[in-house]
Amino acid sequence: MDMLLCFVEIFSILCCCIIYYYHLQTKKASASEPTEWPVLGHLFGMFANIHRFHDWATDILAGGWHNFEARAGLTGIRFFITCDPSNVRHIFTSNFANYPKGDEYAEIFDVLGNGIFNADGESWRSQRAKAQMLMAGARFRAFAARSSRDKAEKSLLPLLAHAADTGARCDLHDLFLRLTFDVTCTLVFGVDTGCLSAGLPVIPFARAMDDVLETLFLRHIIPMSCWKLMYRLEVGTERKMAVARRTIDRFVAETIAKRRADMIRQGTSNSDDLLSSFISHDDDDTSNGNDVVDETDEFLRDTTVNLLLAGRDTSGSALSWFFYILSKNPRVEEKLLEELAPIAAQKGGDGGGMVIFDASELKNLVYLQAALSECLRLYPSVPFEHKAVAADDVLPSGHEMKAGDKVLVFSYSMGRMEGVWGKDCTEFLPERWITSEGKLRYEPSYKFFSFNAGPRTCLGKELAFVQLKTVAAAVMWNFAVEVVPGHAVEPKLSIILHMKNGLAVTVKRRATMASC
Question: Sign of the CA dihedral 422, 424, 426, 430?
Answer without folding.
Answer: negative
